[in-house]
């Protein structure tokens, strides 16, 4: 991804919950810059809301470009020494971060659920997933090898070695507030880069919790910085990060619209930019597929985090011979497995959406589909639990002219479309400018090879004989 060269919250509901994990704490109303917990210079703060009930979980500093510049300068100074640490030293620090994240797994998961709304079980899963990046890069840090290349000239020797580029500006989304940071920070630290992290304004607490882990892991001051800001200040922070001459690379996960802006801001400085943007993932079920396994896959890829993931299934395409069977079984499984409610409740599988605007978008997609001829099987409206909840919804007879096919829905709505031929499915799947991920189920080996190569997505998830294979474009699927 990166190139080389005692918290006390104001919400009484949170205080009640937080007693269960009181042995993990981070400073109240502070952000983390140059190894210190600090307030915004003007003293301003902004609230972090629990999407399940609208209560204020905490208030955090509303930083401006002034605090950003301070973090960048400190990170640049730290880079001067951090880049000279040995691979073994960086590996040891990353391993400590992994160990600490796993030690406080349950605590971190509760914090995540309170600010992001996802079910506690999913939050625990994200913390483990996020920790795995620290573990992975702790091992990869020691494998940053150079090369010796045969020279075309006898009197010369050609050798190549890798160097960290400098300060990494990291901008992360709200839907995976832990894992999206650890994935980027782990890579940066392993390479010898330092970091300035701008977490999403909806979910800054998980970023601050990672900063606390960094402090406990003895990460040198300035190597990891967190700059929190409200929605109003976020555009200036992003622009300032892209335009600062001491930021060497930008890594962003989020919407396509924001990604384009960051690329535009970075272009005059010819800055290295890594973007993971919006998706519109197809989920294809061929006649040869095992329908029960396909339904299980659709449940996992569609309703994870209430449908709020960038690789979430957005269009379910089912071949005509198994269409009715698939829809019938999916209906049954949705009714039996999906429980809506506060993510802190142990039996809940579908939590709230991140805010009321998200509910409005999901509702508009459903209404548009129904107006254009879709059939409503389940759900279809905001949930009675609260303003940020939406009923798990199943729509059939979906058509390409519907918003649900053109845009990311980002909610618990499954839309199923019927197709006749393999060629038609591929054409529909590729009829979007967003190609982050794609899924398909088949037990026809020849078809698997054809479709894997034909899908224009960043990665394919293929189910074959009960095994799952991830196929990043440019590599090959390994059949075993």
UniProtKB/TrEMBL annotation:
For this chain, one GO molecular function annotation is: succinate-semialdehyde dehydrogenase (NAD+) activity
Annotated metabolic or biological route of this protein: Amino-acid degradation; 4-aminobutanoate degradation
Positions of the Aldehyde dehydrogenase domain: 37-459
What EC number(s) does its UniProt record assign? 1.2.1.24
Q: What residues form the catalytic site here?
A: 276
Q: What class of enzyme is it?
A: oxidoreductase
Q: Which InterPro entries match?
A: Ald_DH/histidinol_DH, Ald_DH_C, Ald_DH_CS_CYS, Ald_DH_CS_GLU, Ald_DH_N, Aldehyde_DH_dom, Aldehyde_DH_Superfamily
- Which Gene3D superfamilies does the annotation name? Aldehyde Dehydrogenase, Chain A, domain 1, Aldehyde Dehydrogenase, Chain A, domain 2
- Which Pfam families does the UniProt record give? Aldedh (PF00171)
Q: Where is the signal peptide?
A: none
A Gene Ontology biological process in which this protein takes part is:
gamma-aminobutyric acid catabolic process
Q: Report what the protein is called.
A: Succinate-semialdehyde dehydrogenase, mitochondrial
């Amino acid at each position: 991804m990166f190139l080389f060269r005692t918290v006390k919250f104001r919400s009484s509901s949170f205080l009640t919950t937080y007693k269960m994990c009181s042995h993990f704490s981070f400073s109240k109303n502070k952000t983390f810059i140059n190894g210190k917990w600090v307030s915004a210079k003007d003293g301003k703060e902004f609230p972090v809301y629990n999407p399940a009930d609208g209560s204020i979980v905490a208030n955090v500093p509303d930083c401006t470009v002034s605090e950003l510049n301070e973090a960048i300068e400190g990170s640049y100074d730290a880079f001067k020494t951090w880049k000279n640490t040995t691979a073994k030293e960086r590996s040891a620090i990353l391993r400590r971060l992994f160990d600490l994240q796993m030690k406080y797994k349950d605590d971190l998961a509760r914090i995540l659920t309170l600010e992001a709304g996802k079910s506690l079980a999913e939050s625990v899963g994200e913390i483990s997933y996020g920790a795995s990046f620290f573990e992975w890069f702790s091992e990869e840090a020691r494998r940053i090898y150079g090369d010796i290349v045969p020279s075309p000239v006898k009197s010369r020797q050609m050798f190549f070695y890798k160097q960290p580029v400098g300060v990494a500006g990291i901008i992360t989304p709200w839907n995976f507030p832990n894992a999206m940071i650890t994935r980027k920070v782990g890579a940066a630290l392993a390479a010898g880069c330092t970091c300035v992290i701008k977490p999403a304004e909806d979910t800054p607490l998980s970023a601050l919790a990672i900063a606390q882990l960094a402090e406990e892991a003895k990460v040198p001051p300035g190597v990891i910085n967190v700059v929190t800001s409200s929605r109003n200040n976020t555009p200036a922070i992003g622009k300032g990060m892209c335009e600062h001459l001491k930021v060497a690379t930008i890594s962003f996960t989020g919407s396509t619209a924001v990604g384009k802006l960051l690329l535009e801001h970075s272009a005059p400085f010819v800055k290295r930019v890594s973007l993971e943007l919006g998706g519109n993932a197809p989920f294809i079920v061929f006649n040869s597929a095992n329908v029960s396994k396909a339904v299980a896959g659709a449940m996992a890829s569609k309703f994870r985090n209430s449908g709020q993931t960038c690789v979430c299934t957005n269009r379910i395409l089912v071949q005509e011979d198994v269409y009715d069977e698939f829809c019938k079984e999916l209906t049954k499984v949705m009714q039996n497995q999906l429980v809506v409610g506060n993510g802190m409740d142990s039996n809940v599988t579908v939590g709230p959406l991140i805010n009321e605007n998200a509910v409005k978008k999901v509702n508009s997609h459903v209404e548009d589909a129904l107006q254009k001829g879709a059939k409503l099987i389940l759900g279809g409206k905001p949930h009675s639990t609260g303003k940020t909840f939406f009923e798990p919804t199943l729509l059939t007879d979906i058509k390409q002219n519907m918003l649900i096919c053109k845009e990311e829905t980002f909610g618990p709505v499954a839309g199923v479309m019927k197709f006749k031929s393999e060629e038609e499915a591929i054409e529909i799947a590729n009829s979007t400018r967003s190609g982050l991920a794609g899924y398909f189920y088949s037990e026809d080996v020849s078809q698997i090879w054809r479709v894997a190569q034909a899908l224009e997505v960043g990665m394919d998830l293929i189910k074959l004989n009960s095994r799952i294979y991830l196929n990043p474009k440019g590599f090959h699927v390994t059949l075993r």
